[in-house]
TrEMBL record:
Name recorded for this polypeptide: tripeptidyl-peptidase II
Keyword Transferase: no
Keywords assigned by UniProt, alphabetized: Calcium, Glycoprotein, Hydrolase, Metal-binding, Protease, Secreted, Serine protease, Signal, Virulence, Zymogen
Residues annotated for Ca(2+) binding in this entry: D596, I597, G615, D617
GO biological process: proteolysis
GO CC terms, sorted: extracellular region
Top-rank taxon: Eukaryota
Xref: InterPro entries: Peptidase_S8/S53_dom_sf, S53_propep, Sedolisin_dom, Tripeptidyl-peptidase_I
Xref: PANTHER family: PROTEASE S8 TRIPEPTIDYL PEPTIDASE I CLN2, SERINE PROTEASE AORO, PUTATIVE (AFU_ORTHOLOGUE AFUA_6G10250)-RELATED
Pfam family, one: Pro-kuma_activ
Length: 638
């Protein structure tokens, strides 16, 4: 993502408008999600610097997303499968005239001339260029310039407030509290090191793990406890289906640059495990300059994409696959970038990409993508698998809520969105936990859930393993080799109706030995994951050699492949895609569709973590799918 400097805020104005103080009427709206590490607050921002302010207006009917999503997703609903159209989504959620008037009148009454305001084409944002002095008085904020030892600079305020009567009409205001915590060094930019994109506190993290061992292939079901192959997965989950409607079906795999596949790796894998697919490539969907780069090679650059495509292609053969490659080689991308690409309305008024979290395009940096932002360039695929995430505590609740609502809208349109649940057990990226204030801290002891996987409108996928010495006919356990399946409870999102019985049963019948100081044990918040699949010892061709790979990065595309096959069967039968699957998965009718996982845990934060047990648990969710049974249930629905 782009590193902000102060160059875009140093424009001077001749006159600084003095506003009458209204701070006594303001209430806190947002505060910074986590304090900067290694950044020094060097000075106050100059009062006459100009800030490009954007006021994100509250959308209509957001309180009805779960209701409307259930109407097309719950198996007992009479309108199951009758998904909404894109225009329906725009019309239902557009901000109201009352909201537009309330925010406009507040700004004008505060001394900002109406002719300075600009309403976005879709009525979702009000924009105005204002001086620091104006903004600080308007929202009771204090902007500072922060400097990193590398010399990079950016601005931020710790918190901001709005009038009580306006608060309900505003989602978020930018630029304000959001802060870019990572800084790429010049040599990292040149090399496009994964370290820039995946290892620091607030960064997107993703990518499987490896134990570094090269393997000699011995394809046999007798060795699935030591190396997972396509045949192991077919045996574990009863996958026996050949697609019939590939021309109607769509399956998307998300990759964030610089992660990229190598065709030679795909062919090496196919030659050993799926010979008819040698030469098969994904259909590249370039989002904001996304490119399947080949200059930087090795596990850190090719591991994720090679893994995703080799197993997705192998399990869904001959289904074509869309490679959603997001971000250029200079700036990269985040989750909002791919959401913009599949939903133009989100791009223009619902999203509001944040420069501290998302790629902002056109990219003015040398070598950056200088084309227009990728807005609505493709229809949402029926299934999207994403093996990336970030700590929930690294974003503000407003940012998370706005993005989560978009996942709900994709479900309303008929798309299944799957995210891997993380590889650090109950801890956040890199094993970092939360401090008492709920922000990531190296000394923290509170469990740190991931995002977007905690959004109740995505399907969260955890990881299991064939236990050492066991076979594919024996029960799996939670993954405890190299990685620990991410799981726990959100600190942001309320408990969805579809999950209420399962979560309540777990907390009542298997109460964890932890206090409210360690996790949100209120029983009123979203639990994750929803389901799991194997995530240990995958045989993957990476950079010209076979290696063993571990992680929920393995399990997400496997579940995505199974849902793609289910969609194929429905399409062949003249029906539509399943869309959001969670209400069905948790329903009584689907209870026999899973292998319950009752052993293993997901340690982290100095604890053993949660323990897998009967029924749903925050380690492996409902368990692993029995594809044959799952297919029969979904085929029986309208």
């Amino acid at each position: 993502m782009r590193i902000l400097s102060c160059t875009w805020v140093v424009a001077l104005v001749a006159i600084v408008v003095a506003l009458p103080s209204r701070r006594s009427n303001l209430v806190l709206h947002e505060k910074r999600a986590m304090e900067p590490v290694d950044w020094v607050q060097s000075r106050k921002l100059e009062p006459d610097a100009v800030l490009p302010m954007r006021f994100g207006l509250s959308q209509s009917n957001l309180h009805r997303i779960e209701e409307m999503l259930h109407s097309v997703s719950h198996p007992s609903s009479p309108s199951y499968g009758k998904h909404f159209s894109p225009q329906n989504i725009v019309d239902i959620f557009a901000p109201s005239d009352e909201t537009i008037s309330a925010v406009t009148n507040w700004l004008v009454d505060s001394g900002i001339a109406k002719q300075r305001l600009r309403l976005s084409a879709s009525k979702g944002w009000i924009e105005v260029n204002a001086t620091t002095a104006e903004v600080e008085e308007l929202i009771d904020a204090e902007y500072h310039v922060y400097t990193h030892p590398s010399g990079a600079q950016q601005i931020s305020c710790h918190s901001y407030s709005v009038p009580e009567h306006v608060r309900e009409h505003i989602d978020l205001i930018q630029p304000t509290v959001h802060f870019l915590h990572r800084v790429p060094q010049p040599d990292q930019i040149q090399k496009r090191s994964l370290g820039e994109f995946g290892k620091l506190d607030a960064a997107i993290h993703g990518g499987p793990k490896t134990n570094g061992k090269q393997v000699t292939i011995t394809p046999s079901l007798e060795h699935c406890d030591e190396m997972i192959t396509l045949d192991c997965l077919r045996a574990l989950y009863s996958i026996d289906y050949t697609p019939q409607a590939t021309d109607k079906n769509t399956f998307g795999i998300l990759e964030l640059t610089p992660q990229a596949f190598l065709q030679s790796d795909l062919d090496m894998f196919f030659a050993n495990f799926s010979p008819s697919q040698v030469g098969t490539s994904p259909t590249l969907v370039s989002i904001d300059g996304g490119v399947a780069q080949t200059e930087q090679q090795g596990f850190n650059f090719n591991g994720e994409s090679d893994l995703d495509l080799e197993y997705a292609f192998g399990l869904t053969n001959p289904q074509p696959i869309l490679l959603l490659q997001a971000g250029d080689l200079v700036e990269g991308a985040s989750f909002n970038n791919w959401l913009d690409a599949v939903d133009g309305s989100y791009c223009t008024f619902e999203g509001g990409d944040d420069p501290t979290q998302d790629g902002i395009y056109p990219d003015p940096l040398p070598g950056g993508f200088d084309g227009p932002e990728s807005c609505g360039i493709i229809a949402p695929p029926f299934v999207v698998s994403a093996s990336y995430g970030q700590d929930e505590g690294s974003v503000t609740e407003a940012y998370a809520a706005r993005q989560c609502a978009e996942y709900g809208k994709l479900g309303m349109l008929g798309t299944t969105v799957l995210y891997s649940s993380g590889d650090d057990g109950v801890a956040g990226n890199g094993g970092i936990c939360l401090g008492p204030d709920g922000t990531p801290s190296r000394r923290g002891t509170r469990f740190s859930p991931d995002f977007p996987v905690t959004c109740p409108f995505v399907t969260a996928v955890g990881a299991t393993q064939v236990n050492p010495g066991s076979t594919v006919n024996d029960p799996e356990g939670a993954c405890e080799q190299v990685i620990f399946s991410g799981g726990g409870f959100s600190n942001f999102f309320a408990l969805p109706d579809y999950q209420a019985t399962a979560v309540t049963s777990f907390l009542t019948n298997h109460p964890p030995p932890f206090t409210s100081a360690q996790f949100n044990n209120s029983g009123t918040v979203r639990g994750f994951p929803d389901i799991s699949a194997n995530g240990a010892n995958y045989v993957v061709a990476v950079a010209g050699e076979f290696v063993l790979v571990f992680g929920t990065s393995c399990s997400a595309p496997v579940v995505g492949s199974m849902i793609t096959l289910i969609n194929d069967a429905r399409l062949a039968a003249g029906k539509g895609p399943v869309g959001f699957i969670n209400p069905a998965l948790y329903s009584d009718d689907f209870a026999d569709s899973f292998h319950d996982i009752t052993t293993g845990g997901n340690q982290g934060c100095g604890t053993p973590g949660f323990t897998a047990t009967e029924g749903w648990d925050p380690v492996t969710g409902l368990g692993t799918p029995n594809f044959t049974t799952l297919l029969s249930h979904f085929l029986a629905l309208p």
